Amino acid sequence: MDQQPSSTSRAAADHPTPPDPHQRPAQRPELLHLEDLAQFAAQLDRQLGQCRRYGLRATVLLVTIDPQSDAGDELPTPGILQALLLAIGARLLARVRSSDVVAQVGERRFGLVLMNAGRIEADVVRARLHKALCGPYGVAEQRLYAALRMGAAVYRESGMTGSELVIAAETAQRSADVSAAAAGGRVLVERPTLAVVRP
Fold first, then answer.
1. Packing angle between helix 78-93 and helix 119-133, nearest 10 degrees?
2. Is 55 left (phi over 0), alpha (psi -120 to 50) or beta?
3. How many angstroms separate the CA atoms of 92 and 174, rounded?
4. Max alpha carbon distance in the chain (Å)?
5. How is the chain classified by DSSP, letter by letter?
6. Which of 3, 46, 126, 185 is most exposed by smallest CB count within 10 Å?
7. How far apart are CA 113 and CA 173, in angstroms?
8. The whole model's pTM is what?
9. Distance between CA atoms of residues 53 and 155, nearest Å
């Protein structure tokens, strides 16, 4: 005779236990490589399904990298730029939780999905990333820095779908750029200990 599931097991199936937002497993997320923001929005929709299921929050963070060097306006070669982006991606992965998503979107942009994080938590992450990612980086005997342009969008507050949140984050990023230009300022980077990167 087949054994019938108990009432306890049926209740557990009907009401799945949400992931513990305070749990911090040792495993780190992997860096995703996506061609454009449309692919990132599709990835984001998958994460939002988890938010709807468990009632979690989420914040999208777009980070555009503007490489700078001690040589002035000279741009790095494609190989050196790729080595710089690999180093930046590794630092990003080291500073997020295993439940978060980190993707390189196109050539010089990263997209993050901060799970169970609202605007306050996202502002803390942005401040930490500015400090951690600006550089300098030693790449092929060049001293490079990364000026960061960021834009954030909060699930439900800024939109309900991946596309809506990506558009909102892009808009926030452009608004920050316009404000900086209006103030006549240039993005400044901090200059901690040099990190050597082999391309």
1. 130
2. left
3. 22
4. 79
5. -PPPPPHHHHHHHHSPPPP-TT---SPPPPEEEESSHHHHHHHHHHHHHHHHHHT--EEEEEEEEEEEETTBSPPPPHHHHHHHHHHHHHHHHTTS-TTSEEEEETTTEEEEEEET--HHHHHHHHHHHHHHHS--EEETTEEEEEEEEEEEEEBTTTBSSHHHHHHHHHHHHHHHHHHHHHTT--------S-EEE--
6. 3
7. 16
8. 0.75
9. 14
Q: What is the pLDDT along the chain (199 residues), one digit of tens a residue?
A: 555 555 554 444 444 545 554 454 456 789 999 999 999 999 999 999 999 999 999 999 999 999 887 766 667 788 888 998 999 999 999 999 999 999 999 999 999 999 999 999 999 999 999 889 987 888 877 888 888 999 999 999 999 999 999 999 999 998 876 544 444 444 444 333 333 344 4
**Hey, what amino acid is at 176?**
A
Q: Do residues 168 and 186 touch, judged by C-beta distance below 8 A?
A: no
- Residue 197 in contact with residue 87, Cβ under 8 Å? yes
Report which of 189, 188, 198, 190 is spatially closest to residue 87, judged by C-alpha positions.
198
Distance CA 125, CA 84 (A): 21
The type of residue at 16 is: P
Lookup: tokens for 147: 């000026």
